[in-house]
Amino acid sequence: MQLRLLEYFVALAREGHFARAAAACNVTQPTLSAGLAALEEQLGKRLVERDRRYIGLTDEGRAALPWAQQAIAMIDGLEQAAETARGPLHGALRLGAIPASMPMVGHFTRALRAANPELTVSVRSLTSREIEQALGAFELDAGLTYLDHEPPTQVIAVPLYAERAVFVARTGSGFDGHRTVEWPEVLAQPLCLLHEGMQNRRIFDAHLAARGFAVHPGATADSYVALLAMVEAGGFATVVPKGYTALIPTDSWARVLPFAEPFPASRVGLVVLDRRPSSQLAQAALAAANAIKLPRGYRDG
Question: Where is each HTH lysR-type domain found (predicted)?
């Protein structure tokens, strides 16, 4: 059985569209369709429901998909192990990161490339659920995500830091003389926050509910950069992880304040799929996570 046929099958399941799957595999659509037909003939089972377009996987296709994904990952791991037995690690490490962890990406990448200068890093901004799914489908080598709330399963985790939230308002919006803020005065502001599909927002809402509060933001986004841009433009305030304050220039437009009664910190860490043997890229990611030297702001939570 040719590995390429399995790659066609996995790409179609991921993309849900023949043309996009063919483009992802750098082949023509007829080549991909012929390859899928050949795979079905070898297995003696129909894997894909199709008419003139992709409809979905058959029951047999859904059952076969995890094995195809695992077979591809195992061959990739075999090639990496053979290639790096006497030389540096090459290739691209695929990292998924929740938006809250994006400031950590720079520290992780620096530690990774210090030990593996021939590696490149491909970073995708994903939700915690998407990271868990992509690790299970062997579409990521590692993830940066929450470890305690809706924790990912079947992973090896390295805790990196405890996330604290801070309030960000535009200078001149009424908070210039404050050293801290109280939750009632924060919730009285026009807020922009992450949307409810993001785990950070679900954690935030749960902590608010535990204190008898609820929030009704005037704008939502899936990016902290978008939230900060709305605050800078005026008319909104927001709540962001403390790590993002390092990206805001001092003496700038922003007034950044801690909470007088902060919520409990949330642990964020690096995760890789717990499987044996572990891939070379997963091992490199774990080593980099353990080697990260964090700035004082992270160490202090």
Answer: 1-58
User: Would you say 174 and 167 are in contact if contact means Cβ atoms under 8 Å apart?
Assistant: no
Residues 123, 97 contacting (CB under 8 angstroms): yes
- Asked if residue 47 lies in contact with residue 9, where contact means CB atoms within 8 angstroms, the answer is yes
Cα–Cα nearest to 57, from 31, 4, 136, 65: 65
Angle of the 29-43 helix axis to the 3-15 helix axis, nearest 10: 110
3-state SS of the chain is CCHHHHHHHHHHHHHCCHHHHHHHCCCCHHHHHHHHHHHHHHHCCCCEEECCCEEEECHHHHHHHHHHHHHHHHHHHHHHHHHHCCCCCCEEEEEEECHHHHHHHHHHHHHHHHHCCCEEEEEEECCHHHHHHHHHCCCCCEEEEECCCCCCCCEEEEEEEEECEEEEEECCCCCCCCCCECHHHHHCCCEEEECCCCHHHHHHHHHHHHCCCCCCCCEEECCHHHHHHHHHHCCCEEEEEHHHHHHCCCCCCEEEECECCCCCCEEEEEEEECCCCCCHHHHHHHHHHHHCCCCHHHHCC
Q: What is the pTM of this model?
A: 0.77
The partner residues of 266 in beta bridges, in order of sequence, read 163
Tell me whether residue 144 is exposed, middle or buried, using C-beta atoms within 10 angstroms of its C-beta: 0 to 12, 13 to 18, 19 or more. Answer: buried
The band of 301, judged by pLDDT with boundaries at 50, 70 and 90, is low
* Residue 172's CATH number: 3.40.190.290
Residue 45, phi then psi, degrees to nearest 5: -140, 145
pLDDT tens figures, 54-106: 888 999 998 988 888 888 888 887 777 766 656 678 889 999 999 999 999 99
Q: Which residues form the domain of 130?
A: 88-162+266-299
| CATH number of the domain encompassing residue 156 | 3.40.190.10
